[in-house]
Design goal:
The protein is an alpha+beta fold. The chain has helices spanning 16-22, 32-42, 45-73, 97-107, 127-149, 167-217, 274-289, 324-334, 371-383, 395-451, 474-488, 516-525, 536-551, 554-569, 571-581, 584-591, 593-610, 659-692, 696-709; strands at 85-93, 111-113, 220-221, 225-226, 266-267, 270-271, 313-320, 339-345, 350-351, 358-359, 361-368, 387-389, 455-457, 462-470, 495-499, 612-613, 616-617, 625-627, 636-638. Helix 13 (536-551) crosses helix 17 (593-610) and helix 18 (659-692) runs antiparallel to helix 19 (696-709). The longest helix has 57 residues, at 395-451.
Length: 710
């Protein structure tokens, strides 16, 4: 026993501190004779030989177990059974985690297990990175929509494209691109709205001048009353409208003019005095007295009907032709007939400044009296979607405004062309990079989704992952870890440990371009459990053969075979075509090209058995029957005793009286035989699976009843 605080020791004896430092144990023998006898027994030759034999057997057992495990892990995989799977543990530095997942994703050898199963998605470690990916995805969708709007289809995303940029750099680049596109769109919309409004203003100026000109040029008749025609002539504009006018000082596309000096308004070549306004009034009164439809053509009411004392206000603008009649009726009722309205239809389609839609529109001009009437008409015009414009009272101002509008239209046309060209160039450059961006973003999202399955050790700054890996790909996985460590520049290499577990491994079948289509058919019905026989190995033959039994025809089978051969020979081109078109039918045909080839070959084989070419009986080797007498349906005789048609059905059955009954009976019996054979194959596979799993319940309660009642 060693006690602390002991200072005196015997001369030449080891102190307690020395004993602890050397790591030796001190034992006190109570019985010296007993200890001597036991030491002699332990050092006997028989005991040493037994120990050596036991150690040799243990080493041999360990070596055999290691060889057996290595043989299982290196066992070649096939389509008949799932590959041997083992659970591995990865310990990766935080700096090398991204490169590690990239290398493992390119290899495709691991299926990660979620070590954060109880953690919600909002508490995962890499949630901020996934949110950045969502922002970048929204930006890419916006760019894709803009490309589709201009008729430019971005190239198909290819997993071979490499884009060496970090996620923050990608998000920043996409945000800048989206911001620039939005700015160009806003500029184009504003310029288009201004251009369209200028187009409407030019129509208003010309049409209203035409209205006043025709009113001045009318001749007197029927008692000296001036006639104002209902339909007005119009000279077409020089330029066709394509795009819009800046807002006025009141925030509207057009302003109204309540003018108290309308009697002094100028017209081309003359001045519109009070007499002209009176003439307009008399013309409206004449229409009312004459029993016309009215349509808002009511007489102007006021204190004095003489021309000298008449003071009028007016509103002019543009309205869709479909709403013109209703607009006129509502105005007439709202003002109780105290208004005078004229309209002129625009002969060409005009693009609306707000909706940018081509519409049939008309110019309206309304005379009224009183401020309250003006307020009512302004509200009604806005409710009907009319655009009110400023129409100066002086002819000189109108001419100057029209000239200014035409000049501004020409300037806006050049500016709009420049903005459109700039936008097209920007979208063209974005379309060239859209596919690479989408590929890189998909990789980043998959990368961080995989990292969220890992466990992050904050104390050691490492990430720990568990995954299932095919035993035959352990070495390749370790090589991928070494490449990732070299790329990331980490000082500590990643560690891969093979774990012993009792959990059921996942099923993994190694397929190629020929067997992948058949495996997808099997997976549609259900994925086999780990260690079970894979029916896809038999489906490679049985599925095309049964199709040939159903579709058997040499002619049609040759067409299917030729089509499948073309797909197989030009598979690179056809894969690119299906990726570009994104059509489900074309993609299905291209991916199942080898299945189609086998289906066509078996169709030809069964067609030869049926002796059927495009629905007609063919005579490849010469019939063995003669026809006596030579008429359809007559009795037959063999040409020679024991003569047999070399392959397939003898074409002599085609002209026999019992052709239909023989053919139906033959094909029905063949279908039954093949169906029973296929069912027996399935029962055999289920029995083998049950015996391999040592499941007696499946044998007695599943296999035996099916075999009995089949």
């Amino acid at each position: 026993r060693l006690t602390e605080g002991t200072s005196s020791t015997a001369p030449g004896a080891a102190s307690p501190r020395d004993i602890l430092r050397r790591g030796r144990w001190v034992a006190v023998a109570r019985d010296d004779d007993a200890s001597d006898d036991s030491s002699k027994e332990l050092d006997s030759p028989k005991t040493r030989a037994a120990k050596e034999l036991q150690a040799r057997m243990a080493r041999l057992t360990e070596e055999q177990e290691a060889k057996r495990r290595e043989a299982k892990m290196s066992e070649p995989s096939g389509l008949l059974r799932s590959e041997r799977m083992c659970m591995v543990q990865l310990i990766v530095q935080h700096d090398a985690a991204q490169h590690t997942v990239e290398e493992l994703g390119a290899l495709g050898s691991l299926m990660f297990i979620d070590l954060n199963e109880g953690v919600t998605a909002f508490r995962r470690t890499f949630l901020p990175e996934l949110r950045r990916c969502d922002e970048a995805d929204r930006a890419l969708r916006f760019i894709g929509d803009q490309l589709a709007a201009v008729g430019s289809s971005p190239p198909r995303a290819s997993w071979r494209s490499e884009l060496r940029v970090s996620l923050p750099e990608l998000v920043s680049e996409l945000e800048d691109a989206v911001k620039e596109v939005r700015q160009l769109q806003a500029s184009q919309r504003e310029l288009a709205s201004n251009y369209n409004a200028l187009i409407e203003l030019s129509h208003v100026l010309r049409k209203c001048d035409g209205i006043f000109s025709e009113a001045r040029q009318g001749e007197f008749g029927d008692g000296g009353v001036q006639q104002v025609p209902r339909s007005l002539s119009y000279a077409e504009l020089i330029r066709a409208p394509s795009l819009g006018l800046s807002l006025d000082s009141y925030g509207n596309h057009a302003s109204s003019n309540y003018n108290s000096e309308t009697s002094g308004d100028e017209l081309p070549g003359d001045e519109l005095d009070g007499g002209s306004a009176a003439d307009l009034e008399r013309g409206g009164a004449r229409r009312r007295r004459g029993g016309g439809d009215g349509g808002g053509m009511a007489a102007l009411r006021g204190g004095d009907a003489t021309a000298a004392g008449l003071r009028l206000g007016y509103v002019c603008g543009v309205l869709p032709t479909a709403r013109l009649a209703a607009f006129e009726r509502v105005l007439f009722r709202a003002t109780r007939g105290n208004m005078f309205m004229r309209s002129a239809t625009i002969d060409q389609l005009v693009r609306d400044p707000k909706t940018e839609e081509l519409q049939h529109k008309a110019v309206f001009l309304i005379f009224f009296s009183g401020q309250q009437s003006f307020a009512r008409m302004a509200k009604i015009a806005d409710a009907f979607g009319a655009h009110r414009y400023n129409y100066p009272a002086k002819y000189s101002k109108r001419a100057a405004l029209l000239s200014q509008a035409l000049t501004r239209l020409d300037e806006l046309s050049h500016v709009i062309d420049h903005v459109v060209a700039r936008k097209e160039a920007l979208l063209s450059s974005l379309a060239a990079r859209h596919g690479a961006w989408r590929t890189h973003l998909a990789r980043q999202k998959g990368l961080y989704n995989a990292l969220n399955l890992w466990n992050y050790d904050l104390t050691r700054k490492v990430l720990i992952a568990e995954a299932w890996c095919p035993a035959s790909m352990i070495e390749e996985t370790q090589e991928a870890l070494r490449r990732a460590t070299s790329r990331s520049g980490a000082h500590v290499p990643s560690i891969l440990n093979v774990l012993e577990t009792d959990e059921a491994p996942p099923t993994y079948f190694r397929v190629n371009k020929v067997t992948s289509a058949f495996q997808e058919i099997i997976d549609t019905y259900g994925v086999p459990r780990y260690g079970e026989i894979n029916p896809a190995a038999f489906t490679v033959i049985t599925f095309p053969f049964l199709f040939g039994v159903m579709f058997g025809d040499v002619g049609h089978g040759s067409m299917v075979t030729a089509f499948a051969l073309y797909l197989c020979v030009n598979e690179t081109k056809m894969l690119a075509l299906s990726a570009r078109l994104r059509d489900d039918i074309i993609t299905m045909a291209v991916r199942g090209r080898y299945m189609l080839l086998l289906m066509g070959i078996f169709s030809i084989y069964c067609g030869v058995l049926y002796n059927d070419v495009f629905g007609l009986m063919a005579d490849f080797f010469g019939t063995s029957w003669t026809e006596t007498p030579p008429r359809h349906g007559g009795p037959r005789e063999l040409k020679a005793h024991g003569m047999v048609y070399p392959f397939g059905i003898d074409p002599g059955w085609h002209r026999s009286a019992n052709e239909l009954s023989f053919g139906n009976s033959y094909k029905m019996k063949l279908s039954i035989v093949l169906g029973v054979a296929q069912m027996l194959l399935g029962l055999g596979i289920s029995l083998v699976n049950a015996l391999a799993a040592r499941n007696a319940l499946d044998v007695w309660c599943d296999f035996v009843p099916q075999a009995i009642f089949m």
